[in-house]
Please model this.
Amino acid sequence: MDAKNIKKFTLLINTAILFMVFGLMAFFYLCKANFLIYFSIPTIFVYVFGYVLIVKRSFAFYVRLVYIWITIYMGLTTVCLGYEYGFCLYSLSMIPIIYYTNYIAYKLEQPKVTTSIFTAGIIACYLASTGYAAINGPVYKGPVGAAGVFWFSNSMIVFFFMVTYTMMLIKTTTTSEEKLKEMSYTDRLTGLNNRHYMVEKLSTPNAYKDADALSMIDIDNFKKINDVYGHNAGDYILKTLADIMRSSCDGCVLSRWGGEEFLILLTDTDDVRGRMEALRKAVEDNEFVFEGQKINVTITVGYALKENTASMDKWVQKADEKLYYGKNNGKNMVVG
Model:
C-alpha cells in the first residue's frame, strides 16, 4: 500500500471512529454517565486534530496519539460501564494493529512506534480496568439489555479491524514477496530473466520438458565498443538487443546470462537454425545509433539440441562450445 492509499484508508478510519464517538456520547447521555460525556468532548477534538495530522502525513504522531487515547478511552468506559459492554475487547485488535502500523511506518520512512511499550500499556490498562469492574462493579448503570447489544457491536467492530488489518498484512507481505522474487529473477538493465532465474529453472525437473534447444548469444567485439563509445553506449546496445530478441524470439525463454552473453530456450527443433539466423540478421540490419554515432553491432550464436541423458550443465556447455567455435572462426554467425 502506497502513501496515497494509506492516507485515504486512515482518513476513512478516523471518520468512522469520530462518528462512533458522537454515537457513544449520545448513549452516555442516556446512561447519565456525565464523566464519559465530558470525556467525549476532548476525544472529539483528538480525532478532529487527527485530520490535520493525516493531511500533513504525520502518521507516526497520529498513531501514537490515537493509540494512547483509545487505550485511555477503553479503560474509562470499562470502569464506568463494566466489562460486559465489550469496550475492553478493543485491546485484542489494538496489539496486532500496532505491529502492522510499524511496518507501514517503515515503508513510509516514518519514525516507528515502540511496540513493546504500547503493548505493555494496553495490557496493563485492560487488566486494571476489567479487574476494577469485576471487583467493584460499574460506576454507571446502563439501560436494560444495552450491555448485550454493545458487547455484540463492539465484538463485531473488533473482529472487523482484526480481519481487515490481517488481510492487509497478508496482501502487503505477498506483494512484497512477489516483488522481491521478480527483482531476484530479473536483469535490471534489460528487463530479461537473469542467470539466477535460468539456472534455477533449468535445474528444476521437467521445468522445461517442452524445450528442445538452447542457444547462447554473444555480442561481437563488445569490449571494443565499450572502450570506443563508452559504457553508456554498451548499456544502450544491451537494452536494444534485448528488445530485438523479444521481437524475434516469440514464445522463447530469454535471459541475460552475464555481461554481453544471453541464453535462449526454444521449443521448435525443426527450425532452430532458421530462427537464430533471423535473429542474427535482425541485429546486423538494425541501426544502432547512440548520441549521434552509428555503431555496427553483430552477434554470434551457438546452439545445442537437448539430449535426454545430458544434464543442464552439459547442455549449456555444449551451446557454449558452439559459440566459442563461432567466435574463433569469423564471428557474426550461427553455429549448431
Observations:
- The mean pLDDT is 87.
- Strands lie at 213-219, 253-258, 261-266, 288-290, 293-295, 299-305, 334-335.
- Residues 248 and 279 are 6 Å apart (CA to CA).
- The first strand starts at residue 213 and ends at 219.
